[in-house]
Amino acid sequence: MYKISETDKHYLGALVVLTGVIFFWRGLWAVLDMTPVIENAFVSLFIGLTIMTLTGVIFKEFDPFAAKIQKTMEILHEIVSHKHDKEKDFKIKYFDEASQKHHIIQHHKIKRIEHNFIVFEEKGKDVFIPVHKIHEIHQHDKVIWKK
Question: Is 65-146 assigned to CATH 2.60.40?
Answer without folding.
Answer: no
